[in-house]
Amino acid sequence: MTDVEETTATLPLARKCPFSPPPEYETLREESPISRVGLPSGQTAWALTRLEDIREMLSSPHFSSDRRNPSFPLLVARPVRSEDDSFRPSLIGMDPPEHSQARRDVVGEFTVKRMKALQPRIQQIVDEHIDALLAGPKPADLVQALSLPVPSLVICELLGVPYADHDFFQSCSSRMLNREVSPEERQTAFEGLRNYLDDLVTKKEANATEDDLLGRQILKQRESGEADHGELVGLAFLLLIAGHETTANMISLGTVTLLENPDQLAKIKADPDKTLAAIEELLRVFTIAESATSRFATADVEIGGTLIRAGEGVIGLSNAGNHDPAGFENPDTFDIERGARHHVAFGFGVHQCLGQNLARLELQIVFDTLFRRVPGIRIAVPVDELPFKHDSTIYGLHALPVTW
Amino acid sequence: MKIIADTGKCVGAGQCVLTDPDLFDQNEDDGTVLLLNAEPEGEEAEENARTAVHICPGQALSLA
Ligand code: SF4
């Protein structure tokens, strides 16, 4: 392994401006686009900052996502390890061919068509929350009033998880994602959520119906004769966390950004067809889950002219890639009309986000409805006083006071 | 122009369907790509096909 002296930086680097990636990414990309970096886990890894290198690495079959392997580069102090082997990290922690089969089993639930069918229900959820917002006191915290409950309710209904338990699982997931909490506390949060979902899956197994995703997966497993309780718990765990934290943060960050860029907001209001393009640009600009593109090499392989050896960790800094001037002209400018769909905010390759079209749909309905129904909405404090999540694995906002 | 789809590589992310629902659809069961029209005609459809090839995360699409 390379000596620590050879590393150029220690990840994670902090964002200085809440709307831009850490400024060091630009220096790294210019001076050493594939460079050795230190990690809080004591490991060293390669950091990739060019868009093309990240895409190449993520689509190469020679990199593994197995988070339980000691070679996997971790951005937190210590791995969350389960004593209980029945818990199987789902999809994001698997490699082909196991991953390919597991993904095929569930991806039919997330096709563009299936997502469109959810549209009326999502619209109803959004409208109800905006009714409550408008009826409540000013200022209000948009995170609690809209950003968090909308995607949480949607993923709960889709999976078949009782929304009444949301305080519990939201607190578990935010503690797991917070980089400042101790490894012990992270472990406790992890076990709490795992046990909760283990019980839930057990209950569903006793009475599986076609009404929700977990029930449908149970019935599917029975049909194929490959019932696997651990796999279902892992899947529920992944989809529940991934389904609400990420979208919630994009709703809040997107609202602030659009309010701060009234010329661009005006374009969406005049032509709702532009909302989807704006969403791609917001996804690119923030890239809130950049460490999801971490891997380790399973063979010696060359990326962008650099030899990466088997067993070495690699972090495709997707936020750096999404601000690579070779991929996006004037990358630091927020421009909803640039055509940003080749960004890697959802990753690339076989692990590209399964729920991306659900996220797009939720964001589209929320932005269109919020700015139409609350046209006078504005941020109730100076933007530089907003509590951005500089301490979390998933970037976002802890709170967003708004008035109208 | 002819679009070639390798369903073995497809990860079902639906990026192609979002790009042009007249050219692409997804299999109901496993989300893999279905070509509705493998031979796009006209500038817009051809441009969409090129975009789909570029952004397809599974690199399941190619042009011939
Ligand atoms: S974009 Fe590529 S991977 Fe995704 S559904 Fe279409 S062909 Fe498959």
Care to describe what's here?
The complex is a heterodimer of chains A (404) and B (64). With 404 residues, chain A is of the alpha+beta class. Chain A has helices at 24-31, 51-59, 98-107, 112-117, 119-135, 142-147, 149-159, 166-177, 183-206, 213-224, 229-260, 262-270, 275-286, 318-321, 356-373, and strands spanning 9-10, 34-38, 44-48, 63-64, 140-141, 294-297, 301-303, 306-308, 313-316, 378-379, 401-403. Chain A has one domain (9-403): Orthogonal Bundle (Cytochrome p450), CATH 1.10.630. Chain A is built from 15 helices and eleven strands. In chain A, the strands form three sheets. A six-stranded mixed sheet of chain A has the order 1-2-3-9-6-4. In chain A, strands 5-11-10 form a three-stranded antiparallel sheet. A two-stranded antiparallel sheet of chain A has the order 7-8. The longest helix of chain A is centred in the middle third of the chain and has 32 residues, at 229-260. By secondary structure, chain B is of the alpha+beta class. Chain B has one domain (3-63): Alpha-Beta Plaits (2-Layer Sandwich). In chain B, 28% of the residues lie in helices and 19% in strands. Chain B has two helices and four strands. In chain B, the strands form two sheets. Chain B has a two-stranded antiparallel sheet with strand order 1-4. In chain B, a hairpin with a 6-residue loop joins strand 2 and strand 3. The mean pLDDT of chain B is 96. The chains are: A alpha+beta (404), B alpha+beta (64). Chains A and B meet through helix 3 and helix 15 of A and helix 1 and helix 2 of B. Iron/sulfur cluster is lined by residues 5, 10-16, 26, 33, 56-58, 60-61 of chain B.
Number of helices of chain B: 2
CATH architecture of chain B: 2-Layer Sandwich
Main sheet of chain B: which strands, in order across? 1-4
Strand content of chain A: 5-15%
Mean pLDDT metric of chain B: 96
By DSSP, the count of extended strands of chain A is 11
